[in-house]
Design brief:
Mean pLDDT: 97
CATH superfamily: Flavodoxin domain
Strand content: 15-25%
Radius of gyration: 15 Å
CATH architecture: 3-Layer(aba) Sandwich
CATH topology: Rossmann fold
Shape: globular
Low-confidence stretches: none
Bound molecules: flavin mononucleotide
Structural class: alpha/beta
Order of helices and strands: EHEHEEHEHEHH
CATH class: Alpha Beta
Number of helices: 6
Length: 161
């Protein structure tokens, strides 16, 4: 089961979970980077607008070819009840190179269901598993158990296919 973790993170929380998952699986990891900075209040507002209007902003060229992996685990923060716009760009550019997928997101409180549905539509795949984590759950270290369950579900469902 050759696995790649791909993620976007504006303020570091999704990155923390992505690194954790890749360490648990001992697998490769790739970060999606913005071309234009999203720092500060204007970056935040632009992010919300892009997400609400389903924009696909430019992202830096990716380094790892997802085609070379059996499973790509894609992580995003929730922005206005949807995936972060740079993840949308990644999926648009790479959905034809994906074999199987799993999704995870971090958020303040809500929006994971719609986020995962949109990711499913764009990737054109039923995910092997989905994991939604709030900032509070991560603070309280509840994510450790949830990440383990997520990985077990991915493995179990992958074996079935
Ligand atoms: C533009 C914007 C919109 C957001 N919209 C939501 C939302 O709809 N629901 C939610 O629970 N959190 C929302 N958040 C909070 C982020 O999802 C949350 O802080 C996330 O963990 C940040 O991940 P990161 O540190 O990897 O960037 C939003 C944050 C931003 C910047």
């Amino acid at each position: 089961m050759k696995t790649l973790v791909v993620f976007y993170s504006r303020t570091g929380l999704t990155k923390e979970i992505a690194v954790h998952i890749s360490e648990e699986l001992n697998c490769d990891i790739e970060e999606i980077f913005d071309v234009k900075s999203r720092k500060g209040i204007f970056g935040c507002i632009r992010s919300g607008i892009e997400s609400a209007f389903k924009k696909t902003p430019n992202i830096k060229e990716i380094e790892v070819n997802p085609e070379n992996y059996d499973i790509v685990i894609i992580g995003t923060p929730v922005w206005v009840g949807n995936m972060a716009s740079p993840v949308r760009t990644y999926l648009f550019r790479n959905n034809d190179k994906l074999n199987r997928v799993a999704f995870f997101c971090t958020m303040l409180s809500r929006g994971s269901k719609k986020t995962f549905l949109e990711m499913e539509k764009l990737s054109e795949f039923n995910p092997l598993a989905c994991l939604a984590l709030t900032g509070n759950e991560i603070k309280q270290e509840k994510h450790i158990k949830k990440v383990k369950e997520f990985i077990n579900k991915i493995k179990k469902n992958y074996k079935k296919t």
